[in-house]
Amino acid sequence: MRRSMTTLTLVAVCGSLALLVAAAVAVAMTLAGSSPPAGAAGARTWTTTLSPAPDDLALAQITFPDAARRRLSPQTLHVAVSGPFGEDYLAVGAVSPSLTPGVARVLVALANRPSALDDPVHVHLRISAQRSLGAALVRTSANPFARSASAPRPTLCDLRLGGHALVGSQLRVLGSRGSAVSGFDAASVVAQGYDAACGLAFASAFERAFAPSSGGESTTPTAPAPTPVPEPRPPVGRLPGEGCEPRAGYACPLAGAVRSRSVARR
């Protein structure tokens, strides 16, 4: 009995210690902000901040070097917004494996559309990925519309496109948030954003969709400028009283000549 009681006591003590250790680990994970989200057991979570200028966009590239053969999906990778979002637009697309051999890659486009209500300066993205994807490398770029043509290309411009533009069919949409950019779906926004950031050809309508006057040019006719009416020239060669009227800055020619002769006679 003593041995049995001793054995039961040791089991109880070990069980209590195991529970205490598990609780301590859970608290540490929560404080570190790395606890997996609900429904995504075994995921790691981190935050990335994008700050596009008004009427411009920002791009984020998430690369998993050890997940070349893994298919990225909303179940393995999730991008959410943490905090205010305003009228901005977010689109996430997985890049075709043929363009990123040896790695798995995702592009995230964020369009900054200013509004009078809750317009954030910075947008914090909460990214959750399964641990089986391995470590992630994140690169960002912002404001391609304001960048000069001579500026160096961002480091995220490394897709194997052979100088051609990225198109929406080469992306698989993993999610989006907000009202779509006028005339472009989620895949097109990501593709056009990449092309604009990397100096590739993109639709001019895409940049116009971000401009404050994107609703269309005004068709109100503009009134023509009035035609200036030439000032009538006073008659030349007549004396006062015979059609010539002296005024400031002008004297009748013959009047000056007659006065000169009068002075000479005197």
Kindly describe this structure:
The chain has 266 residues and is of the alpha+beta class. The chain has helices at residues 2-32, 186-197, 204-208, 253-265, and strands at 43-50, 56-64, 77-82, 89-95, 104-112, 123-130, 137-142, 171-177. The chain is built from four helices and eight strands; from the N terminus they run αββββββββααα. It has a five-stranded antiparallel beta sheet, covered by helices on one side. A three-stranded antiparallel beta sheet has the order 1-6-3, with no helix packed on it. The longest helix has 31 residues, at 2-32. It is elongated, with a radius of gyration of 37 Å. It starts with a helix and ends with a helix. Mean pLDDT is 76; it is low at 1-39, 214-222 and 255-266.
